[in-house]
Amino acid sequence: MALLGRIWPMKLHTQILLGLILGAILGPLLGDLAIAIKPIGDAFINLLVMIVVPLVMASLIVGTASLGDLRKLGRIGLKTVGFYLVATALAVALGLAAAQTLNPGTGLDEDVKAAMLEDYAGVTAEQLERVRERPSISDLLVRIIPRNPFRAMAETNFLQIIFFSILFGVSLTLISEERRKPVLDFLNGVNDAMIVLVKLVMKVAPYGVFALIAAVAAQFGYGVLLTLLKYVLITIGTMVVFMVTFYPVCLRISGMSPLFFLKHYYEVIIFAFSTSSSNATLPLNLQVSEEELGVSNEVASFVLPLGATVNMNGTAIYQGVSTVFIAQVFGIDLGAADLLTVVLTATLASIGAAGVPGIGMVTLTIVLTQLGIPLEGIALVVGVERILDMSRTAVNVTGDTACAIWVAKSEGELEMPAGAAIAAT
Ligand code: ASP
Question: I want to staple 104 with a disulfide (CB 3.0 to 4.6 A). Which of 188, 325, 340, 424 is the partner?
């Protein structure tokens, strides 16, 4: 890529796209070598996750303190949570509707089903262990308050970090200017340095993305993919439909051209796809949303980290389709009340689930439990988990930014970049 870059100078996001395509093509050919270079990809994810806590804290505290007006903060909070709930519920409903009409679970051979349940029994047991630790909704609300903010930082617990940072920011506005200024100057410096660090780390992104995708492509079970092709196509197809309908509508309402958005945002989408982690994508998402899409720091620093935890539209679609798929394979009929339960449970289950790889499959077990569907059904979807995780993460982060743009526009916090307004394209 470096050599290619010298012969034919390319923008960084073109290089990242190239890393993705080359990784997908060369991964299976490289075989063990592709798996051997995976640590390069893991190191790259670590570099980004390393930045996320100081970046989010510094920018959210500064953002809250400079917003000044508590009512405005409340409004931004309500709009964000409202958007996230509506988008997530719509996404699950779309996933359910698609699966109910296209029937991904019919026609799966009995022998294939038995073999899959057998093959993945160990993985299922591990998932079941994890779901046992899930707190109840009221527990979750109490747990948003960190007893120790440093522990929240150490565990990258975004809901707790957001809670503490907002109160910290609000308290700063209540002390004297003389006391406030040095704290804000310091945090502004931290924020700026972290943004510079994101840009530095992004210089190696094409290699990181190549290593991650090559390893996935080399390890991928293409046999399982074929067996589950209908299920995979319906899940990804529904995500694509959501991407090309719901988000463009949100952008148009905000006055931004969807094409402009795509041109500036696709780097973030590729990135989320390669890393399978909304958390790891957050530093880049903050930078692109603020610098290229014109969302103010005050809005982005609140809406995006909250979205990384709470708003998972792709995961919601996945849960809708997968629930119907597993129920159909087991011959369980889902009535209207069951479908409503799926919408409610899947929406609530995504709150408090961190934006890290594989969490969507864990929250799927909550939905299945609620409906009394055998949890062993998870074994049926495990084989294609990675590719679906990558796809849903790409949708998840796009949803966060669509919300940030809408909230920013409605609060007069969107500085529309040149060429971004609908009329201009
Ligand atoms: N990996 C997804 C994310 O980070 C969550 C999921 O597993 O669905 O957004």
Answer: 325
